Amino acid sequence: MIDVRNVFRHFESRSGLFAESRVVRAVDGLSFSLESGGVLGIVGESGCGKSTLGRLILGLLPPSAGEILIEGKNLLALDRRERARLIQPVFQDPFSSLNPRQRVREIVGLPLAAQGAMPTAKQRDAVMDMLARVGLPDTMADRFPAQLSGGQRQRVAIARALVLRPRIVVCDEPTSALDVSVQAQILNLLADLRKDLGLTYIFISHNLAVVEHVATEVAVMYLGRFVEHGPAQPLFAAPRHPYTKALLASVLTPEPGIPIPDVGLGDNYPDPSNVPAGCRFHPRCPAAMDRCRSDTPPAASREGRVTECFLAA
Amino acid sequence: MNPRSVSTGLGLLIVGGVLAIALGADLLAPHDPFAQDLSQRMIPPSWMDGGSPDHLLGTDQLGRDYLSRLIFGARISLLIGTLTVVTSGLIGTTLGVVGGYFGGRADDAVMFAITCRLAIPLILVALTVVALIGSSLTVVVLTLGLLLWERFAVVARTTTMQIRNLDYVAAARAAGASTPHILIREILPNILTHLVVVGTLEMALAILLEAALSFLGLGVPPPLPSWGLMIAEGKDYMFFSPWVIMVPGVALFILVFGINLLGDGLRDLLGVSARR
Amino acid sequence: MKPVLEIANLSVGFPDGTAAVRGVSLRVMPGETHCVVGESGCGKSVTALSVMNLLPRGASRSASVMRFQDHDLTRMADRHIARLRGDKMAMIFQEPMTSLNPAYTIGSQMAEVLERHRHVSRAKGLDRAAELLEKVGITAPGMRLAQYPHQLSGGLRQRVMIAMALMCDPELLIADEPTTALDVTVQAQILRLLKSLQQQLGLALLLITHDLGVVARMAQRVSVMYAGQVVESATAEALFAAPAHPYTQGLLRCVPIPGKTPHDEPLGSIPGVVPRIGGRFTGCAFRDRCAHAAPACEGDIPTRHLSHDHETICTRPPA
User: Fold this and answer.
1) Is A149 within 8 Å of C154 when comparing Cβ atoms?
2) Which among A209, A279, A216 has a CA at the least distance from the CA of A248?
3) What residues make up the domain containing A117?
4) What pLDDT is attached to residue B1?
5) Neighboring chain B residues of A115 at a CB cutoff of 8 Å
6) Among B178, B224, B216, which residue's Cα sits nearest to residue B79?
């Protein structure tokens, strides 16, 4: 359903008048396909480019190179209304994802109004129906975002995303800014809606425990590429890439008595404007070999899982 | 009581008062502001020696009642202030939003326009225009309106640039909204508070500039009772009859003071800090 | 053994009427990590700020006991407490971006702490700073001293914050969500660092967090806060093994554990939202969200002792 073909997205950044412009390689040659149904979890830390990838898939940013096809059609060639019917976002920050000057009914109704096809009365009904589905009472429709809690705002954002019944929803850290108890509510809501409406999710997050719970397929992103990608359960049970192993080891479960792991990644932090030669993970990799410094590992595919590491071949 | 709310209240009182006076000028003014009576020239205000209760603020060199001229002058000041702000606001906001939202070449063009505008000396332009067309209320409004937009543009541009990166704008784009919709319904309402604050400052500025231009003879033509013009016409009599200058001067001061207080208060009320 | 920090009955109110902290009591022993865990708005950060006397203007604070070592913090003027701040009582915050002054080098900011509290020269301050940067695992400390905060990554900045807090050999370190803004892999490293420093230096650590995983791995004692009160207080093992308060139980059910939480069932969740508490609130703040709520929950809530060091406030009798 989604076909991402060798997509690149680079940014030029100039720091100061006399500095050279540096290229930030946010997405650096990414290819994958996603079938309908299911949840693709994209995990990674800051600087890996997952948010940029989210925007590329939403059509909010054009790729510097490569193409993205949705249901066989080039994303960029789609009319804005067609694209809106196919793919919608839920963003991280419930405070900045809703226009503070609009009431909830306007916010949720925006996608319908932008389509320009439905009569206003039907739009209103669709909005109220959606609000009910996300667990918000009718009285919320006339409130402003400032009057809502973080969890309620995120429900409004979800209602807005689903009112057009899109095929794909890109959730970019949808629960990271919420309290734990609210996070659970929202995750349950997203799961229910997926079943009821037959949606496909792309779930971007840095929280591996959450991704492990929701995803059917997982891609681990590092400096603009997927270093490991495959079905969720086998990947979590037996990760192959050293970075995936480190990420999983860093998850602090609420289980006392277990010491804090030493993931052994060292102090170098990933800088997308300064991507290392050879394997991009080698400066931090505990298992780095000589050839990792000079050669780029090919994508090794085994049992449905693709890993970019010499050790996984 | 909160000192800031006191000053805002004062500003509101002043501006509201002047507005009421301007609107009700026909009813409030005891005399026709244009009626000349040379037998009654240079009568001092009623509280001074030689004053008369018939002319509370005295008369000017042509025997016109000063109080009436002051009252009708309020109309001119407010009219000019408001029309200028509306004109320059429209121009500046449009330019700022377009430059701030689209970036790239459009933004370069807008910045260039702002830089050019900043390089233009206001008085010389006014001088040229008046020399070519002659002075009138319309000319003053157009000149000021077409020249005082740069602060609107800068503020609109900066705030637009901040907002265009927010998630709700991205969500609107993802929802399929057209660009005009985004500019008008998503961005504009959220920068309005900042623009209102700029508007009050520009209004005060416009009023003072009009007074200055009129003083130089480049503004509103006589016999219109512009406060600036009243000061200009009275400057020859300044030493013997100081009220001729002081009355409109004090009025200008009070009005501009009130507008600035109101602007400060609005800024606090709307939660906008000067830098943002 | 005497506690390094002892708080009894702390209450903090804000000018808009919110009662942010209502009768909080806790104590931190030397060498111990005491975690205060709760969600946003529960008052955990305000509690920490009260200890350091860093509340915003207009906040009212009262406590029957607030003692750091032998100092009675309730009776001390701010300028005396200021001498303890950064010296024997140090604090690190969540956002290393805004905790360091971008206009000064790391070295000068760190040295300033020592200069101010111990009246030593800049050179001595820089020496000590370099020593501590090494201790917190920063390589090439000499070079780092000359750098500005924006030249360092988030993880490095947080290490610098920790080093800065250690400049005067504090006895108590208060850490307010020190790893929340950091990446997962860096978080693990920073927490390991805190733990090892604590063992080396015998520090008492008051760790404020919302992350139960952090609590499980770091804490000896835990205080769970909700709506301004400590609703449960226990050792870490006891809390996770047998949580007594319905809020704690609910919270633990909300956190997915890879490999253990079933995927095809909804995650445990707590319905509703945290209430806003004004000054006159009585009864249990959790009752609108609690499955076991009873009419008794609107009155005074008794403290239940499940063991000598595990207590909770609830109307339900202990199981």
Assistant:
1) no
2) A209
3) 2-312
4) 61
5) 176
6) B224
Q: For chain C, what's the residue count?
A: 319
Mean pLDDT, all residues of chain A: 90
CATH number for the domain that contains residue A113: 3.40.50.300
Q: Between β-strands C172-176 and C89-92, what pairing exists: parallel, antiparallel or unpaired?
A: parallel
Q: Which helix (H) or strand (E) holds C106?
A: helix C106-118
Total structural domains within chain C: 2
Distance of alpha carbon A151 from alpha carbon A178, whole angstroms: 7
Residues C175 and C274 in one domain: yes
Tell whether A157 is within 8 A of chain B (Cβ): yes
Work out the minimum CA distance from A77 to partner chain C, whole angstroms. 37
- HSE of B147 in the Cβ direction (CA atoms, 13 Å)? 20
CATH number, domain with residue B123: 1.10.3720.10
Q: What is the pLDDT of residue A211?
A: 93
pLDDT > 80? residue A198? yes
Domain assignment present for B39: no
Least CA distance to C195: which residue of chain A?
Answer: A260
* C256 lies in the same domain as C298: yes
CATH code for the domain in which residue C197 is found: 3.40.50.300
Number of compact structural domains in chain B: 1
Identify whether B210 is part of a domain. yes
Picking from A184, A213, A260, the nearest residue to C192 by CB comes out as A260
| C115 and C53 within one domain | no
Chain C positions touching A45 (Cβ under 8 A) are 183-186
Residues 49-78 of A with CB under 8 A from B: 55, 58-60
What is the predicted pLDDT for the residue at B182?
Answer: 93
Q: In this structure, are residues A165 and A126 in contact, taking their beta carbons and an 8 Å threshold?
A: no
- Is B167 an interface residue toward A (CB < 8 Å)? yes
Please report the sign of the dihedral spanned by the C-alpha atoms of residue C241, residue C242, residue C246, residue C247.
negative
Asked if C236 and C191 sit in the same domain, the reply is yes
Q: Can you tell me the mean pLDDT for A51-64? A: 92
Domain end marker among C141, C167, C193: C167
What ipTM does this complex have?
0.88
Q: Stretch A6-16: mean pLDDT, rounded?
A: 81
The reply to whether C153 and C28 lie within a common domain is no
**Within an 8 Å CB–CB cutoff, is residue B180 touching chain A?**
no
Strands (E), B27-181: none
Q: Provide the chain C residues 137-176 that lie in CB contact (below 8 A) with chain A.
A: 137-139, 153-156
Report yes or no on B44 lying in a domain. Answer: no
Could you report the per-residue pLDDT of A95-130, keeping only the tens digit for each?
899 999 999 999 999 999 999 888 999 999 999 999
Mean pLDDT over residues C265-288, rounded? 84
Residue among C204, C222, C225 at smallest CA distance from C68: C204
Total domain count, chain A: 1
Query: Are the Cβ atoms of B170 and A157 closer than 8 angstroms?
Result: no
Q: Measured between alpha carbons, how far is A307 from A312 in angstroms, rounded to an integer?
A: 6
Bridge partners (DSSP) of residue A231 are A217
In what side-by-side order are the strands of the sheet with A65-70?
A: A21-34, A2-14, A65-70, A73-74
| B24 domain residue, yes or no | no
Chain A residue nearest residue B177, CA to CA: A114
Q: Which pLDDT tens digit goes with each residue over A277-313? A: 888 888 888 888 888 888 888 888 888 899 998 887 6
pLDDT of residue A236: 93
CB of C200 within 8 Å of a chain A CB? The answer is no
* A96 interaction partners in chain B (CB closer than 8 Å): 166-168
CA C80 to chain centre: 22
Determine the structural domain holding residue C131 and report its residue range: 98-167
Q: Is the pTM of this model over 0.90?
A: no
Residue B272, amino acid:
V
C234–A contact, CB cutoff 8 A: no
Which of the listed residues C145, C167, C189 is the one where a domain comes to its end? C167
What's the pLDDT band for B275 if we cut at 50, 70, 90?
A: very low
* Residue A98 at interface with chain B, using a CB cutoff of 8 Å: yes
